[in-house]
């Protein structure tokens, strides 16, 4: 019965990893949209001049800092989940070998 419980833990870890990856993908899509918009503004202004930012530079820097922190936190969570999955996989393999299968 321990094996079933371990499978449940693996499934939960995979679900958590998938949720984190969805969050990271959404963040990346937002960053990409911002980059594309900025590129379009540069092209529209003739390519040589950059349009004046619509918000003070400090706000953008603060927002970027927060986004970097969120990405780093997601990266840490992914790393922890990968370690957990590796551990659970090693345990499952050890049990299979121990049962003579």
Summarize the structure.
The chain has 101 residues and is an all-alpha fold. It is 84% helix and 0% strand. The protein has helices at residues 2-44, 57-98.
Provide the residue-averaged pLDDT: 79
Q: What count of helical segments does DSSP give?
A: 2
Q: How many domains in all?
A: 1
Shape: elongated
- How much of the sequence lies in strands comes to under 5%
User: What is the CA-atom radius of gyration, in angstroms?
Assistant: 22 Å
Q: Into which percent range does the helicity of residues fall?
A: over 70%
Distance between the termini: 16 Å
Major sheet details: none
Structural class: mainly alpha
DSSP summary, beta strand count:
0
Low-confidence stretches: none
List SSEs in N-to-C order.
Answer: HH
Description:
This protein has 101 residues and is mainly α. It has one domain (2-98). It is built from 2 helices and no strands. The longest helix is centred in the N-terminal third of the chain and has 43 residues, at 2-44.
Q: Keywords, please?
A:
single chain; 101 residues; 2 helices
Task: Please describe the topology of this protein.
Elements: H1 2-44, H2 57-98
Helix pairs in contact: 1-2
